[in-house]
Fold:
Amino acid sequence: MMSLEPRVVPISVPTPFPVGPVNAYLIDGEPLTLVDAGPKTEVAWDAMLAGLADYGRRIEDVGQIVLTHAHMDHYGLLRRVVAVCNAPVLAHPRAKLWLDDTPGEWARRGRYFSEFWARAGVPAERRLRMEQALSASVDYAESLMPGAVVRTVHDGDVVQMGGVPWRVLYTPGHAGSHISLYEPQSQQMIAGDHLLLKVSSNPLLEPPIGVQQRARSLVDYIASLKRVAEMDIRVAWGGHGPPVLNHRALIDERLAHHAERTEQVAGLLTGGPRTAYELTLDLFPQLPTSAVFLGLSEVVGHLDVLETQDRVREWESDDGLVRYELLIDSAEAVDGLE
Ligand SMILES: [Zn+2]
Structure:
């Protein structure tokens, strides 16, 4: 009997980043769907072509592209892919901002973070080196060509892949543009970087859009994890590393890790108010400049969690620095109030 189960074929694509290779996916059937692409490098392009060729396909055959999130290891090559296959790109509206205007988004991000880092207490000299590092990575992705078709998708939308309908889930946290896709018959999920077997996804700081508040990435990420834990998933195909076959155990592990870190950050505040940068150095004393952004993202994420629990408050003092102060110093006290 012929199986109707959509076949998801991973294509491993090298990246120059510490995370290692990224997984693109090919989903056979009408239309032939490509999920994500590698960063904008020649080796990544060659790996994409080779991965498709192994499966008897060419870029020209791709009829649709789905982008899980707008990080450069996942969309860097899309301009080049679309230039060949002319297929529409399905992505979250926040990812479309990057697809339409990558230099503009980098600039917006740069402006926001130079101020954010200053207020977080990062010394000027280190900020300068962080900004230089940021500008060195802009070459790994680019906007799509004018006229390329981007179809925005939202939570609950249905996308046809491999001849069957997949449901779009908005799973913000690692990125505000992050979507996952779920096929209920075969219980397969395209999970992007929302669920990774080998590494804990970083809920990264992002600039707000328009007049909105900055997203609370870790708060969002925890909510997205809890939502996915409720679902029946046989295999979750992640953006890096092998697929996840036991998502509930993995999510439990990730949630426990984050909860532990949140308490650790709360503990660091018992000695008095601290800036986010001071807390980052408390947590990671040997942090190289290249990792300060990740460290700050993590610390601010936990501070956001503590703020939503009404355990911490932040204020900006006359010196222009934002400091965080502990209001209640144990999770038990919060439980006791409920
Ligand atoms: Zn990634």
About this structure: DSSP finds eleven helices and 14 strands in the chain. The domain at 8-102+138-253 is CATH 3.60.15.10 (Metallo-beta-lactamase; Chain A). Residues 19, 22, 71, 73-74, 193, 239-240 surround zinc ion (CB under 6 Å). The chain has a mean pLDDT of 93.
